[in-house]
Amino acid sequence: MRGRQKSSGSSSHVRFLGSERENAHDRWYRAVAPYYDQLSDRLRTARAYPFLQHLFLRYGPIHEVLDVACGSFALDLPLVRRGYQVVGRDRSKDMLRVARGALKAVGRDVDLDEADMRTLHLTREFDALLCLGTAFNYVTSPSDVRRTLAVFRRHLRGGGLLVLDLTNFDAWIRHPQNARAVVDHRAPDGTRIAIFAFNEQERRKKIHQARFLTLVQKGRRIDIRFDETPLRIWAKPELDRALRTAGFRPAEWWGDLRLGAKYDRGRSPRLVSVAVRT
């Protein structure tokens, strides 16, 4: 009878990490922050600057810009390079760390700090305010929506520009993507990141339940985590009413942060609102 074989010592060390629902946002970004820009659509990032520049010239003069969910600052850095004064706020310390590293690498000094857009209070007004990358979808309750839009208005000068970039869930519901592999990426340092999405829409409650299974492998160590968070489903007519009630005049609707991306309810990946503070 053969004896039990000894382990070669080459097996992987696997950790399973759960996440409290209310902390899912922070914990998920903590896991992926160092690789976030590598996972993002670089073409979309490159197209965003000409789009924003077009808006700023059309509704300007615009010099001072507040980004209330700046993340890694990838969308803002081209603005800074071209002379715009950008202030960045984000609720993720880990994403802000990435942003500061990116700015240091190009020798730029920008006002960055941790803040929640629902309670943000700066003692100044700006020419434009950006809320990009689905961040406003994270504001789910009606009271928080009203409070957040009031914060946006308070930080804009009269006639100032508000750019909201949301997921277009109308297209999502028509063409479901509720179970899919979102990312399978190997970073330059050898780290491998895989993200699988298992989503569900509660249309009556206007909520999209975003659930992610994220695997991060570094050498023999594999961290597997499951996170979920609710996102608000916005349709264009509803968002239009909310903006008008909050003291904004919706001026343009786009289907992405890209010139020429006309909004199509059933097809556009994004719902981008351009509104003016009244």
Major sheet details: 7 strands, mixed
Low-confidence stretches: 1-9
Number of domains: 1
CATH topology-level name? Rossmann fold
Classify the helix fraction into a percent range. 25-40%
Q: Report the total helices.
A: 8
Radius of gyration: 20 Å
Amino- and carboxy-terminal Cα gap: 85 Å
Strand neighbour order, sheet with most strands: 4-3-2-5-6-13-12
What is the typical, i.e. mean, pLDDT? 89
Query: What structural category do the secondary elements indicate?
Result: alpha/beta
Shape: globular
What's the total count of β strands? 13
The CATH superfamily is identified as Vaccinia Virus protein VP39
The CATH class is: Alpha Beta
The fraction of residues assigned to DSSP E strands is 25-35%
Provide an overview of this structure.
The chain is an alpha/beta fold and 278 residues long. It has one domain: Vaccinia Virus protein VP39 (Rossmann fold). Helices cover 28% and strands 34% of the residues. It contains eight helices and 13 strands. The chain has helices spanning 24-32, 36-39, 42-59, 77-81, 93-105, 142-154, 169-174, 236-245; strands at residues 13-17, 64-67, 85-90, 111-114, 126-131, 156-167, 179-186, 192-198, 200-202, 207-218, 221-232, 248-254, 270-277. A hairpin with a 4-residue loop joins strand 9 and strand 10. The N and C termini lie far apart (85 Å).
Helices and strands, with pairings:
Elements (H helix, E strand, L loop, with lengths): L12 E5 L6 H9 L3 H4 L2 H18 L4 E4 L9 H5 L3 E6 L2 H13 L5 E4 L11 E6 L10 H13 L1 E12 L1 H6 L4 E8 L5 E7 L1 E3 L4 E12 L2 E12 L3 H10 L2 E7 L15 E8 L1
Parallel strand pairs: 1-11, 2-3, 2-5, 3-4, 5-6
Antiparallel strand pairs: 6-13, 7-8, 8-10, 9-10, 10-11, 12-13
